[in-house]
Amino acid sequence: MPALDGKHGLIVGVANKRSISWAIAQAAAAAGARLALTYPSERLEENVRELAATLDKPVLAPCDVGSDQQIADLAATVDREFGGLDFFVHGAAFAPAEALSKPFVETSREAFRTALDVSAYSLVALTRAVMPLMEKRGGGSVLTLTYIGSQRVFPNYNVMGVAKAALESSVRYLAADLGPKNIRVNAISAGAIKTLAAAGISGFSSILQVYRDRAPLRRGVDQTEVADAAMFLLSDAGRAVTGSILMVDAGFHAMGL
Ligand SMILES: NC(=O)c1ccc[n+]([C@@H]2O[C@H](COP(=O)([O-])OP(=O)(O)OC[C@H]3O[C@@H](n4cnc5c(N)ncnc54)[C@H](O)[C@@H]3O)[C@@H](O)[C@H]2O)c1
């Protein structure tokens, strides 16, 4: 596995032990990185605190990604604790429940706004906030998590697919802006995995079965497989890769039928 010795990382998006971001945190810690984790609300603080306690000298901070003030406070905390930043993992996504069960055509303006704000704009706002910290280190790596529902229709994925399309486009525009600062910006498009976020999508288990039936590897993927791919993009092994969407989905994306 690529090394992250002496590196400092910020991970936004850990909710519980099933979170993809938590698998990335564990892999990054095993590779030698020191980490800051965030929680979006008091309700999830205890969960994240318990997980963080298994890491070496973790930093824990609140961050609702819908709040510019909390984003600014988070960047200040990370700067104070780490004196810069080498990588940032963005694993936050949200859409109101009713937008993930009704027909897409019924998506309300408010649900659309919330989904795009929390799931796509937050990457832009957080990247802008950590950019000066990465400049202190002579560059850095930003990684977000997306899904192929950005390009194709999956039942009930709905407005989250639209948000992921915006997120993937943001990856390319951010990569173009930040490349001259040696800051890379990429996404992993993961296959479907049973997590808290996935549980919010009606009929999600039938999507899992489609991977087992049709993906070239005839199976789904798990969090550790996404985390292993993340280590490539976060470490120097991926130093020439930016503006990319890396498919970690057992090959599902390659299939027509
Ligand atoms: N599970 C899958 O099948 C799958 C597949 C591809 C991509 N993804 C993406 O991976 C990422 C992580 O999701 P996951 O599946 O690990 O589920 P998860 O529920 O563990 O993670 C989603 C995270 O978003 C956070 N979040 C929601 N609203 C927030 C807010 N306002 N401020 C800060 N954080 C907020 C939640 O607290 C949670 O930690 C998401 O972007 C998701 O869309 C998931």
Secondary-structure element string: EHEHEHEHEHEHHHE
Specify Rg, calculated over alpha carbons.
17 Å
The shape, in one word, is globular
Q: Structural class, from secondary structure content?
A: alpha/beta
Summarize model confidence as the mean pLDDT: 97
Low-confidence regions: none
Q: What order do the strands of the largest sheet run in, or round the barrel if closed?
A: 3-2-1-4-5-6-7
Strand content: 5-15%
Write a short abstract of this structure.
The protein has about 260 residues and is α/β, with parallel strands linked by helices. The chain is built from 8 helices and 7 strands.
Key structural traits:
single chain, 257 residues, alpha/beta, seven-stranded parallel sheet, 8 helices, 7 strands, 44% helix, binds nicotinamide-adenine-dinucleotide
What does this structure look like?
It is a single chain. The protein is of the alpha/beta class. It contains 8 helices and 7 strands; from the N terminus they run βαβαβαβαβαβαααβ. Strands 3-2-1-4-5-6-7 form a 7-stranded parallel beta sheet, sandwiched between helices. Helix 2 links the parallel strand 2 and strand 3. Helix 3 packs parallel to helix 4 and helix 4 packs parallel to helix 5. The longest helix is centred in the middle third of the chain and has 27 residues. Bound molecules: nicotinamide-adenine-dinucleotide. Nicotinamide-adenine-dinucleotide binds next to helix 1, strand 5 and helix 6.
Protein topology:
Layout lengths: L7 E5 L7 H11 L3 E6 L2 H11 L6 E4 L5 H15 L4 E4 L18 H27 L4 E7 L11 H21 L4 E8 L5 H4 L4 H11 L8 H12 L10 E4 L9
Parallel strand pairs: 1-2, 1-4, 2-3, 4-5, 5-6, 6-7
Helix pairs in contact: 1-8, 3-4, 4-5
The structure holds nicotinamide-adenine-dinucleotide.
